[in-house]
Amino acid sequence: MNKKNMFALLTALALLTASAGCGAKEMTETTDAPIVAEKSNGEAVMNDAAGAPAEAGEAADDAAPAAAPAAVDEGAYAEAEYDMAAGDADFAYGADAKLTARTAGSPVLNGEFGAVDGAEVADDVLTAEPMPAAGEVGVLTAGEWRDHDNWGFFANLVNTGAIAFPSFGLDPTHRVEVTVHDAAGTALPNADVVLTQEDGGVLWTAKTDKNGVAYLFEGAGTGTSVTVTAPDGATATETLPPLAADTQSETPLCTSRSAEITLESAPVLAPDMQVMFIVDTTGSMGDEMMYLQSDFTALTEEIEGETAYSVLFYKDEGDDYVTRSSGDFTSDTAEIKRALAAEYASGGGDEPEAVAQALTAAFIDQHWSEDAVKVAFLIYDAPPHDGTEEDLQAAIGTAAEMGIHLVPVVSSNGSRETELFGRAAAICTNGSYVFLTDDSGVGGSHLEPIIGDHEVELLHDIIVRIVNDYRQ
To answer: Is 134 inside a domain boundary?
Structure first.
């Protein structure tokens, strides 16, 4: 018996074994049944057009086997034909590999094959886990919340002890809201705004958005003045009013002050846009990875104007990599789609992930344009590691100084500390907080954030709206 037929027989035996021993879980017949094959050692991944369903009776063009790594013996690989209702799909399969077969309306069956010896197949070769039906990864639902637009609500949460900060070194609870405009009242975007204390030390630096608004944060200090510098060099300094608490308490935990500054300057708009996706690719992020892989092109088609993209993937120490970038920003969306299609969720294993390293790579190591509106989506489900507070403060402070709006997108199984870190990061960078919801029925359960009334929308629509709203 040749390798091809032998492996097909072993695969069939494995499926029968799992059907008998795992509650007789069945694979629904469908014409939308993509095959996703990946090596468990992380060296290769194959799918049909990044998740696009294959037509009945035929395999996707790019479902061809990936080349076996040179370091693996040739005998460790076998070619197999896997026959499903959707048709045949050829894929390379190693002795140390995992098969994922997903069909519409059915669970995913994951096959963990050890070193296959003759006709021996492990009894526990298949296990089931819930996954979205084929072609439905674009239906992820989410909500959006801006604490800056609901500051009274946020202040009450903090002052009553419902939530507490700092979160991993980020403290957004003492803000200064600065509005900059010209003599006619026209908003002045892209101006540098610096908050200083009495001894001249700088507490925070930010840029005004398209509405001429910048948010500064006092942290453990007390700001005394704000200096604004417009893109054309015009400058002005304003002394801050006395501190006024958002509560009647003598020792408020949350405060807000405001300043309005007029400059003899003309508005200078940023003509272009840069959008980065910072994506946790550990094992629990499969739904979100498939969403980006399937929906990225549709997103770019609805995002207005000239836009350049980049993707920063991250896992954790001890995984295949800690951070991996798609490269410099590019308007070649096909290049970004290829980078997304090459990645898959694996690794991790504990809750904290390399968030600090990811944000450092994204905001400090990556080159961002001076003349672009900048938005970064952090798609994640786990908080940073303890002990990374200084790195996180540096990364978020750099993002605020450069005018990068960070939009955290909290995925399934997120914890309360994951939420509070995301909200703090969004507040400090004049961003929005986005969270997936259970309404789509996709993936695990999603944490209900401590917020007010909000709408549930498609994640696709929220991303498009946020990017377009920030555009100048």
So the answer is: no
Looking at residue 301, which CATH number applies to its domain? 3.40.50.410
Compute the average pLDDT of residues 381-397. Answer: 97
- Between 275 and 64, whose confidence is greater? 275
Contact present, 266 and 298 (Cβ < 8 Å): no
CA distance 462 to 454: 12
**pLDDT over 70 percentage in the chain:** 69
Q: What is the pTM of this model?
A: 0.72
Task: Look at the chain and report how many structural domains it folds into.
Answer: 3
- Measured between alpha carbons, how far is 138 from 432 in angstroms, rounded to an integer? 21
Structural domain span for residue 257 = 163-262
Report which DSSP code applies to 365: I
- The C-alpha torsion from 291 through 293 and 294 to 298, rounded to 10°, is 100
Mean pLDDT of 330-349: 93
Which has more pLDDT, 214 or 11?
214
Q: For the domain that residue 234 is a member of, what is the CATH number?
A: 2.60.40.10
Of 239, 262, 285, the position where a domain reaches its end is 262
In a domain? residue 356: yes
pLDDT for the residue numbered 459: 96
For residue 58, tell me if it sits in a domain.
yes
Determine the length of the chain: 472
R_g (Cα) of the chain, nearest Å: 25
Same structural domain, 232 and 178: yes
Instruction: Express each pLDDT in 41-97 by its tens digit.
Output: 343 343 443 444 333 333 334 444 444 444 433 333 233 333 323 333 333 323 233
User: DSSP assignment of 262-311, as one string?
Assistant: E-S-------EEEEEEEEE-SGGGHHHHHHHHHHHHHHHHHS-SSEEEEE
DSSP H helices, 200-276, are none
Q: Dihedrals φ, ψ of 265, to 5°?
A: -150, 160
Tell me, what amino acid is at 140? L
Residues 63 and 124 in one domain: yes
Q: For residue 417, which phi and psi values (nearest 5 degrees)? A: -70, -30
Residue 348 near residue 319, CB atoms below 8 Å: yes
pLDDT tens for residues 247-267? 455 667 899 999 999 999 999
Question: Do both 242 and 325 map to the same domain?
Answer: no
The region, left, alpha or beta by phi > 0 then psi within -120 to 50, assigned to residue 443 is left
- Among 227, 262, 297, identify where a domain stops: 262
Residue 361 has pLDDT above 90, yes or no: yes
Same domain, 241 and 305: no
Q: Does one domain contain both 304 and 443? A: yes
Is residue 90, in this structure, part of any structural domain at all?
yes
Write out the two tokens for 399: 């993002």
